[in-house]
Structures are given as C-alpha cells and as structure tokens.
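Anyone up for a design puzzle?
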C-alpha cells in the first residue's frame, strides 16, 4: 500500500500537539511496516530526522499553509496533484483537515472541537474556516479517528454523524517523562523557584487554558496558607497571550509566579517531575496530554471535571470545576494539607499511566489506515 501523510506539523525544534502525534505514531508505523511505502507531504523544508525509514519519501510542496486561504489552496490543489503523481492509495491527515477535491480514500484524525465550545479563543478567520469546513471534512473522509471517547461523542453530538464509525486512537505521553530522583528535584527547584515547592502548569499561554482562573485560585491559596509555594507556568506564549501577561504585571503574588516560556523536552520533564503537583484546569481538551505526563512523573494532578481528562485519569487525580476558581483553590489546599491523599493519588496514577503508550496509539491508528485503504 502507498500511504501519503500530511506532515506539515513535523516542524524542526517546534513539535507540539499534532506534531508530536505525527512523530510518535509514524515513527513506529513506518518501522513496523517496511513493506508499505509512505509519502510524507511537507509544506516547507523539513528536518532529515523526520525521514524515519527507507520506505519514507519526503516531498515538499509550498506555499507554507499558514492561514485559511493557503490551507484551502494546499489541501485542495497541491495535495491532490501529489496524491495523483505518487499514485497514493490512502491519504492520512492528523490535523482535522483533509482534501475536498481528491478521490483518494482519506483517513482523518480530529483531536477535538474546541473551536465550537470556546470560539472566543480562536482567531476569527480560523474560526470561520473551521465552522464551514469541518463538517465537510468529516463527510468527505472515508474514516474518522479521534483521541478519546469524550471527543468521539462530541463529534457525533455536534454533527449528527450516524452513517460513519468514529474510531478512538487514544493519545499518549512522551516516553521521556519519568519520575525524578530527589537530587534532580532539588536541582530543578533551585534553578526555577529558589528551592521552593511549586504547583506547575505546562502548556501554551492561551485563553482556553484557563490561566486567569488559575491565578485567582493561587491567590486564594496564598492568602489562606501563607506558604512559600510558587506557581510555575511552563509553555510558549500563544495567541492572545498579551492580556494575560499584562494582568500578571499587576498581580499581587507576581513574585511567586514564574513564566518560563517554551522549554526543550528535557527541561519540561524536569519542571514537571519536580513539582509538588500539577494544576491543569483547561476549559476544553480532546485528551489532555500534560496530565498524563505528570502522572508518568508520579506527580499528583488537579484537573477539570467533566472533561476528557476525567475519562483518561479515572480516580487517580483530583477534579475541580474549571469555571470556579474557588473550587480550584479548594483542591490545591486539600492536596497541600493531606499528604496521605497526595501519596494515594501518586500510587493510583502509576497504574493509569501505564495504560497509555505510543505503541498502542500507533497500532490503533494503523488499523484505521488499513480500513481506509481496504
């Protein structure tokens, strides 16, 4: 089988979200199935390390698809011509977009429908594109996959899909995440928080991540506990970050909040693994990888109730109402006061974390790809 793959999110030194998903799954799939040919379609120059095996043919076709007009041109003009040129049997796209003009069977991976639930967190031009074309992409593709039952049910509910099966290919955390030694924890705390304990959030600085409520919760925690606890926000500054940063300048506990910016993988592991606990109360996620990363590091987690994270984490974390900063603060205080609860969550998280792996994700995705070409 000749499988074309949309690899425009495989970006050198900038793998996030879709990029990690592509990297981890197709690194394994191309190695496990050497009898199949893979055509990787890039929209800009690529890093040679993304050509995982000899059965991968990299192809660059611009222009770089960075906004709606170029998305439309790239998927509906450039991609179909390459699918025809390389005689592809299947086209796999893991970013929620596909081609509306090709007759080649397509496997579409939709991670979530956050744009429908929190439209204010999306650029207007992007939002219009998502709303107009997502139902068309779902209808056009031969198969659809997503990363959780939460997202699957949301897709079915929002678009009334009854004539097409949606397969769940659970996401996973990077293998590099692991428990830290006590010495490594102390070194990390010395580097980032002057040796103080801290709550950590990892992810982009973005409205949907609910960081204003996290700051409000941290204020309540600091007022009630009078502790030296810090709050570390580790992630890149994404769209609409300016308002958050401006608010932070006048924040009462500004000296106790550390914003690291984008971190290399190794540092992200350290800053996660050395934390007292992770607080990840995002308003909406299709899976919630940072929660799983913390669990793999044996760090207790507070996350959002009624979300994909609840499906994934079961009883191994504490849940708070993401829209209620007082409830988030209550959970932070509960975890701070109850060491037995903290240890219980760490023990439970070891079991849950072991249920998810990129090997499993790659197997599940390959099954959907086979179905697409069958």
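Challenge accepted. My sequence:
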């Amino acid at each position: 089988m000749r499988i074309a793959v949309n690899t425009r999110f495989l970006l050198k030194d900038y793998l996030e979200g879709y990029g990690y998903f592509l990297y981890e799954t197709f690194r394994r799939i191309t190695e496990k199935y050497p009898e199949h040919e893979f055509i990787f379609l890039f929209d800009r120059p690529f890093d040679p390390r993304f050509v995982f095996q000899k059965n991968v043919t990299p192809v660059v076709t611009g222009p770089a698809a960075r906004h709606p007009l170029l998305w439309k041109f790239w998927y509906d003009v450039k991609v179909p011509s390459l699918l025809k040129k390389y005689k592809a049997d299947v086209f796999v796209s893991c970013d929620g977009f596909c081609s509306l003009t090709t007759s080649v069977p397509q496997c579409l991976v939709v991670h979530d429908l956050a744009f429908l639930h929190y439209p204010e967190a999306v650029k207007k031009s992007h939002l219009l594109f998502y709303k107009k074309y997502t139902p068309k992409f779902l209808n056009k593709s031969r198969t659809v996959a997503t990363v959780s039952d939460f997202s699957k049910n949301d897709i079915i509910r929002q678009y009334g899909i009854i004539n097409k099966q949606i397969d769940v290919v659970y996401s996973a955390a990077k293998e590099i995440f692991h428990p830290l030694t006590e010495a490594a924890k102390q070194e990390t705390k010395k580097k980032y928080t002057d040796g103080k304990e801290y709550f950590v959030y990892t992810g982009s600085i973005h409205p949907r991540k609910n960081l204003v409520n996290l700051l409000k919760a941290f204020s309540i925690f600091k007022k009630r506990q009078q502790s030296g606890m810090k709050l570390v926000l580790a992630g890149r500054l994404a769209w609409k970050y300016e308002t958050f940063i401006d608010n932070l300048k006048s924040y009462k506990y500004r000296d106790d909040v550390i914003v690291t910016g984008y971190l290399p993988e190794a540092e992200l592991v350290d800053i996660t693994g050395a934390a007292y606990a992770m607080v990840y109360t995002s308003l909406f996620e299709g899976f919630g990888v940072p929660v799983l990363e913390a669990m793999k590091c044996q760090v207790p987690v507070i996350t959002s109730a009624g979300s994909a994270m609840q499906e994934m984490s079961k009883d191994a974390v504490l849940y708070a109402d993401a829209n209620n900063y007082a409830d988030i603060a209550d959970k932070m205080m509960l975890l701070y006061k109850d060491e037995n609860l903290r240890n219980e969550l760490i023990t439970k998280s070891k079991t849950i974390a072991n249920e998810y792996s990129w090997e499993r994700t790659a197997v599940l995705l390959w099954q959907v790809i086979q179905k697409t070409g069958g």
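A detail worth pointing out: The domain at 182-353 is CATH 3.40.50.2000 (Rossmann fold).
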